[in-house]
C-alpha cells in the first residue's frame, strides 16, 4: 500500500535538485506552500504525513512559516552571490560531474570554467609542450552556453565540458595539421562526425593537442608541434602517438581528450600518463574526418582521468552510428548500437571473473627499464586475485607481440588512404595533394634544422616503403590471411579458458627517454590487427627519482572480444575503485588563479626543442 506523504529528506533532495538544475527562479509560491503543507511525523511508517487536525494546526503553521523563511533566505542568497563571492572553478583533476556541479549549482559559469583551463594551459604548457593550437572561438562558445544555461535549456551529457582534440581530427574553423609543417594551413570545411557528435553533446573544443607527426610513431614529436614531454618525468616521452592529448589530460588542461589508435596510440599515452582510455572495436566509431594511416588498424576514442568520463565520452562518440563513408561501421551488430556505456559501470566485485594473462607480452629480464613494469604488474595481479578474480596464464606461442608486429599493415594502406584524404573536396587551404608531395615539400638538408616534415630515423624504411607500396602487393594478401588466422584464434582461446578478458602491460618497459630511436616494447598490436576493444587503466608507478618525483606511470591493457566494451569498462571500473592508482603530476597540483580573458590567448608550440636525433626534412640516414 502506498503511504500518505513521503520522507522529508526526499523533498529536500528534490528542491536541491531544482536548484542544481538552475530552476529555482521559476519555483512558484504554490509549489513552496505545497512543499511546506502541515505535516506530522509518523513514527510507524517513518515519514511525514499531511494532517488537517486542529491539534497540529498552530504548530504546523509556525513550522511552515519558519521553513518558508529559511528556504527563501537560502535561495536568494545563492542566486544573488556576487562574482567576488563565488568560488573560482578549480580545474585540477576536474571531471564531467564536477563541471556540471559547478555550472548547475550556479557556482561557476561556462566562461569561468573555460577560463580556468585556459589559465592552466597558459601557465603550464611550457612544462609539457602539449598544445599545438587553441580554439579562438572557445570563449564565444562558452558565452552562448551561458545564455542557454540561464534560460534553463541546458542539455547534453557534455554540456559546458572543455575538451582537447588530437590534431588529426578534422575541425571546421581550426586547421588540422597532424603536426606536419606542410599542413599548417590545411583547413577542413567540415567537422569530423565524431567532433560534431561531441559538440552536439555540449562539449567545448578548447583546441588541438600535439602528436607524433601524422600519428606514425610513439615519441610524440612533430615538425610543427616540437617534442612533447612527459609531465611526470621531463626526460621521458609521453607515449604516443596521442602523446599531446595524454600529457594535456594528465596536466588538467581539459576534462578529457581524444586520440587515435593504429597500433598503440590511445593506450600508450594513457599508460605513460596515469590515465584511462578505450580503444573501441573497429567500426564502433566512424573514422571519417580523421587523418588516416590504415583501414585495417585505425580506430579513435577518448582518454580521461576517470573511467566514468571515458565511458561518457565513448557513448557520445559512438552515437555517430552507421557512416557510408566508413563501411567498417556496418559491422556493428544492432544490439551494440546506441549503448549508454556510462550506465554499464556500477559498483560490484571481481569475484569469479576469469581473466587471462598473456605471458608472451612481458619482458621478464632484469633491467632498470623492465623490472619496474614487472613489479607493478605482479602487484596488480595479486590485487586482482585477492579481490576474487581468477587469473589464468596464457602461454600459447601465437601470442607473442614481437611476432605479431610483423603483420602490421600500415605500409601497404597508408599512401592510398592519405592520397584520398588530401584530395577530398572538404579539405580547403594550402596543402600537398599527395603523400609524395608532402614528403617533398622542402629540399633535404645536411644539418636537419629545416624542412617541412619530421620522420624519425627508425621510420625511414617504413615511410620509403609506404611511398611505393599499395594493397595490390602480393605480400599484403598474405598478411591479411595471417591476420584472419590470428583473429580466429583469439575467440578460441577465450572459449577454451572461459575468459571475460585478458590482461598484459601496455609496454614491457618504462616509456622511453627523449631522443630514443623508437617507443620500444609496446604491446598494442594484438588489438590493432584483430579489431578487438581494449580498456587501459593505470597500474602503478616506478620508484620515485630525481627526474620522476612520484615515479613513472605504468599502465595495463584489458582486452576483450569484439563488442565487449561494456564488460571491459565494468572490469576496469572495479579495478579503478580497488587500486586507486591515478595520481596527478607533482607540479600539476599547483593551483592557478582564475583569470578573466577578453580573448583566447595564443599558445605557440616550442618547435626548437626537437632532439638532434630527429633531423627535419629527410628520409635518409
TrEMBL record:
Gene3D superfamilies: Amidase signature (AS) domain. Signal peptide: none annotated. InterPro entries: Amidase_dom, AS_sf. Residues 112-569 form the Amidase domain. It comes from the Eukaryota. PANTHER family: AMIDASE, GLUTAMYL-TRNA(GLN) AMIDOTRANSFERASE SUBUNIT A. This is Amidase signature domain-containing protein.
Amino acid at each position: 500500500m502506498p503511504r500518505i506523504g513521503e520522507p522529508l529528506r526526499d523533498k529536500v533532495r528534490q528542491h536541491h535538485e531544482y536548484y542544481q538544475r538552475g530552476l529555482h527562479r521559476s519555483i512558484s509560491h504554490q509549489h513552496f506552500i505545497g512543499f511546506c503543507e502541515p505535516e506530522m511525523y509518523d513514527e510507524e511508517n517513518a515519514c511525514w504525513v499531511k494532517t488537517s487536525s486542529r491539534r497540529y494546526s498552530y504548530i504546523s503553521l509556525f513550522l511552515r512559516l519558519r521553513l518558508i523563511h529559511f528556504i527563501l533566505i537560502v535561495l536568494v542568497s545563492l542566486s544573488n552571490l556576487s562574482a567576488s563571492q563565488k568560488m573560482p572553478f578549480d580545474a585540477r583533476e576536474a571531471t564531467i560531474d564536477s563541471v556540471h556541479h559547478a555550472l548547475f549549482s550556479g557556482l561557476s559559469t561556462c566562461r569561468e570554467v573555460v577560463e580556468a583551463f585556459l589559465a592552466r594551459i597558459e601557465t603550464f604548457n611550457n612544462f609539457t609542450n602539449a598544445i599545438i593550437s587553441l580554439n579562438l572561438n572557445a570563449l564565444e562558445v562558452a558565452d552562448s552556453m551561458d545564455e542557454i544555461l540561464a534560460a534553463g535549456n541546458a542539455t547534453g551529457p557534455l554540456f559546458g565540458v572543455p575538451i582537447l582534440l588530437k590534431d588529426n581530427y578534422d575541425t571546421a574553423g581550426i586547421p588540422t595539421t597532424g603536426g606536419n609543417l606542410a599542413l599548417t594551413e590545411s583547413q577542413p570545411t567540415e567537422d569530423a562526425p565524431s567532433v560534431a557528435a561531441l559538440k552536439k553533446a555540449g562539449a567545448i573544443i578548447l583546441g588541438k593537442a600535439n602528436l607524433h607527426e601524422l600519428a606514425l610513431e610513439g615519441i610524440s614529436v612533430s615538425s610543427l608541434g616540437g617534442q612533447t614531454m612527459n609531465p611526470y618525468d621531463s626526460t621521458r616521452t609521453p607515449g604516443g602517438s596521442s602523446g599531446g592529448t595524454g600529457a594535456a589530460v594528465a596536466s588538467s588542461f581539459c576534462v578529457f581528450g581524444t586520440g587515435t589508435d593504429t597500433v598503440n596510440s590511445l593506450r600508450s599515452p594513457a599508460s605513460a600518463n596515469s590515465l584511462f582510455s578505450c580503444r573501441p572495436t573497429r567500426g564502433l566509431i566512424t573514422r571519417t574526418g580523421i587523418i588516416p594511416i590504415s583501414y585495417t588498424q585505425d580506430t579513435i576514442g577518448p582518454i580521461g582521468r576517470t573511467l566514468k568520463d571515458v565511458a561518457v565520452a565513448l557513448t557520445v562518440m559512438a552515437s555517430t552510428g552507421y557512416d557510408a563513408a566508413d563501411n567498417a561501421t556496418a559491422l556493428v551488430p544492432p544490439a551494440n548500437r546506441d549503448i549508454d556505456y556510462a550506465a554499464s559501470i556500477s559498483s560490484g566485485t571481481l569475484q569469479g571473473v576469469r581473466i587471462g594473462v598473456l605471458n608472451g607480452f612481458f619482458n621478464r629480464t632484469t633491467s632498470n627499464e623492465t623490472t619496474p613494469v614487472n613489479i607493478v604488474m605482479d602487484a596488480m595481479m595479486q590485487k586482482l586475485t585477492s579481490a576474487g578474480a581468477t587469473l589464468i596464464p596464457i602461454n600459447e606461442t601465437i601470442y607473442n607481440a614481437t611476432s605479431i608486429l610483423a603483420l602490421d599493415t600500415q605500409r601497404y594502406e597508408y599512401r592510398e588512404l592519405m592520397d584520398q584524404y588530401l584530395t577530398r573536396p572538404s579539405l580547403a587551404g594550402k596543402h600537398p595533394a599527395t603523400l609524395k608531395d608532402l614528403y617533398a615539400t622542402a629540399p633535404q638538408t645536411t644539418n636537419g634544422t629545416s624542412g617541412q616534415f619530421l620522420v624519425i630515423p627508425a621510420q625511414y624504411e617504413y615511410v620509403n616503403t609506404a611511398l611505393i607500396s599499395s594493397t595490390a602487393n602480393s605480400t599484403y594478401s598474405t598478411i591479411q590471411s595471417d591476420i584472419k588466422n590470428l583473429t580466429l584464434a583469439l575467440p578460441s582461446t577465450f572459449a577454451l579458458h572461459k575468459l571475460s578478458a585478458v590482461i598484459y602491460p601496455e609496454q614491457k618497459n618504462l616509456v622511453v627517454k627523449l631522443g630514443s630511436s623508437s617507443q620500444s616494447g609496446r604491446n598494442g598490436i594484438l588489438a590493432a590487427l584483430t579489431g578487438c576493444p581494449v580498456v587501459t587503466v593505470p597500474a602503478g608507478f616506478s620508484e620515485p627519482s630525481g627526474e620522476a618525483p612520484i615515479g613513472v606511470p605504468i599502465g595495463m591493457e584489458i582486452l576483450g572480444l569484439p563488442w565487449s566494451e561494456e564488460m571491459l569498462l565494468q572490469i576496469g571500473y572495479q579495478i579503478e575503485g580497488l587500486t586507486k592508482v591515478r595520481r596527478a603530476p607533482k607540479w600539476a597540483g599547483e593551483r592557478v588563479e582564475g583569470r578573466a580573458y577578453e580573448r583566447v590567448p595564443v599558445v605557440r608550440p616550442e618547435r626548437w626543442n626537437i632532439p638532434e636525433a630527429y633531423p627535419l626534412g629527410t628520409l635518409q640516414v
